[in-house]
């Protein structure tokens, strides 16, 4: 009888263990730092918000990243806006600022100084490579190839180019309509500071806040030419053409294969890195922000190619991930 009672007791205990396991089926994570004694404790699923603003160029990349992340982490809301690089830094470097700022240029000295004044620790992460692309109307069949010097002259006040025939006498003697993103965008600053060597824009240039506006304007005017990141051209190839630029070795079409910073990359003179900047203090305070940062770098190469950017090399990605893992 005693053995029968022991058997029954074991059966009951087994049922209770199975029941307890079934009730504990919610998503949890284990950590070895929870109780200070090195023993595993349970951590609840991630929740809360992640707030990102900044570059319109980087927006498609980060919006896709956020969409993918929220599919896997339904309790976290990732908000991605596109005020522009400079406008985004103003929101990022403020009390109760954003968690990330996307940028199509490096942070400026005065922005770094402001971060120091506010006690904000900022970390730069390169996420992809972009190629500055000059887009034209689909009906423009004459300016499909230009030298680097000629395409830049169109936007320079001192360039001496106002009509297509000023570049090539065989082209139409019609007024060129130059366009681009306004000063809120890092793309504008890259064009002005790096490509135009800080020389003034021509007075007739039409600078816009929204990239979608530029796409629409160029698609409706055969004499229009605009500059912006390759990704926006890539997603609007049905509406726009692109100038193949001759950097001295023949015309090069912007593409994921030609964009790169290495000397072997044919489109390298118009290539630039693009970034996201992290508020390190907020990443340490909010688990969802750090988790998103790690996720973004782990998936940066895949999302880059899906959104019109050239991916970074493995070493650069791993270096960023290692830094972020060290913040845990």
TrEMBL record:
Mind listing the GO biological process terms from this record? phosphate ion transport
- Record InterPro entries: PBP_domain, Phos-bd, Phosphate_ABC_transporter
Read off the Pfam families from this record.
PBP_like_2 (PF12849)
Where in or outside the cell it occurs: the entry states: Cell membrane
GO MF = phosphate ion binding
- Report domain PBP positions: 41-260
Q: Which UniProt keywords apply?
A: Cell membrane, Lipoprotein, Membrane, Palmitate, Phosphate transport, Signal, Transport
Q: Tell me the first and last residues of the signal peptide.
A: 1-20
Q: Which superkingdom heads the taxonomic lineage of this protein's source?
A: Bacteria
* Family matches, as SUPFAM superfamilies: Periplasmic binding protein-like II
Its Gene Ontology cellular component terms are: plasma membrane
Q: Quaternary form?
A: The complex is composed of two ATP-binding proteins (PstB), two transmembrane proteins (PstC and PstA) and a solute-binding protein (PstS).
Similarity annotation: Belongs to the PstS family.
Q: Tell me the function of this protein.
A: Involved in the system for phosphate transport across the cytoplasmic membrane. Part of the ABC transporter complex PstSACB involved in phosphate import.
Under what name is this protein listed?
A: Phosphate-binding protein
* Provenance organism: Metabacillus litoralis
């Amino acid at each position: 009888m005693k053995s029968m009672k022991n058997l029954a007791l074991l059966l009951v205990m087994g049922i209770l263990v199975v029941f307890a396991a079934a009730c504990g089926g919610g998503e949890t994570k284990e950590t070895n730092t929870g109780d200070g004694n090195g023993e595993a404790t349970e951590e609840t699923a991630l929740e809360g918000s992640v707030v990102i603003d900044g570059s319109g160029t980087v927006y498609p990349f980060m919006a896709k990243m956020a969409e993918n992340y929220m599919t896997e982490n339904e309790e976290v809301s990732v908000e991605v806006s596109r005020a522009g690089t400079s406008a985004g830094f103003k929101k990022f470097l403020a009390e109760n600022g954003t968690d990330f700022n996307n940028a199509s240029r490096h942070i400026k000295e005065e922005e770094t100084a402001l971060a120091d004044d506010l006690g904000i620790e900022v970390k730069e992460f390169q996420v992809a490579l972009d190629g500055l692309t000059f887009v034209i109307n689909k009906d423009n069949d004459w300016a499909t190839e230009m030298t680097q010097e000629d395409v830049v002259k169109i936007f320079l006040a001192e360039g001496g180019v106002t009509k297509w025939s000023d570049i090539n006498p065989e082209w139409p003697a019609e007024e060129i309509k130059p366009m681009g993103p306004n000063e809120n965008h890092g793309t504008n600053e890259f064009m002005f500071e790096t490509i135009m060597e800080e020389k003034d824009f021509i007075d007739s240039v039409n600078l816009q806040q929204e990239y979608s506006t530029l796409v629409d304007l160029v698609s409706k005017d055969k004499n229009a030419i605009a500059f912006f990141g390759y990704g926006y051209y890539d997603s609007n190839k049905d509406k726009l053409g692109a100038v193949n630029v001759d950097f001295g070795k023949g015309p090069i079409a912007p593409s994921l294969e030609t964009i790169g910073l290495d000397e072997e990359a044919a489109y390298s003179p118009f290539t630039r890195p693009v970034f996201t900047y992290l508020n390190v203090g907020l990443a340490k305070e909010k688990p969802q922000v750090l988790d998103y940062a790690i996720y973004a770098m782990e998936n940066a190469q895949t999302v880059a190619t899906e959104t019109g950017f050239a991916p970074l090399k493995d070493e650069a990605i791993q270096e960023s991930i290692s830094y972020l893992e060290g913040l845990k």
